[in-house]
Every structure is written in structure tokens, then in C-alpha cells.
Design a protein that fits this description.
The protein is built from 3 helices and no strands. Helix content is 80%, strand content 0%. By secondary structure, it is mainly α. The protein has one domain.
């Protein structure tokens, strides 16, 4: 189970970086990463309802990092 979680995190980061290279916003990368992982999970044998409990800490970490990213992008 932990291997699949690590795989989904790595794939999610890769999707976000590829979208960032093509000049998409980081926020869109986060959104498309979530959609991509949601579609990928059933094919690798993970039940979405069971993995949500694992994603809760990652979601809060992502929200915190997004807040820092938004704050850093505001120029004074």
C-alpha cells in the first residue's frame, strides 16, 4: 500500500512539474494532479474511499504549501 502511495505522489509531482514547464499555474497543476490520481487509483487496485484517510495529511500539507506559494508570489 505504501508503495502505491509513493507512486501516486511521484506521478502527481511529475504532472504538476510538466504543467509548470508549459507555463500553467501551479494551482492548475494541483487540480490536474488530483484528477489524474483519482483516475489512476482504480487501475492500480486502490479504493478511493480507503485512500482518502491517507491523503488527509497530504491535503493539509498541500494547502499550507499553496498558501506559502501565493504569499511568495505577491510582490510588495
Amino acid at each position: 500500500m505504501e508503495l502505491y502511495m509513493a507512486l501516486m505522489i511521484i506521478v502527481g509531482v511529475m504532472v504538476t512539474r510538466v504543467l509548470h514547464i508549459f507555463s500553467f499555474l501551479t494551482l492548475l497543476g494541483y487540480i490536474f494532479r488530483g484528477i489524474f490520481i483519482a483516475f489512476l487509483s482504480p487501475y492500480i487496485g486502490l479504493d478511493i474511499s480507503k485512500t482518502i484517510s491517507y491523503f488527509e495529511p497530504l491535503r493539509w500539507l498541500g494547502i499550507t504549501l499553496l498558501a506559502f506559494d501565493i504569499e511568495a508570489s505577491i510582490s510588495f
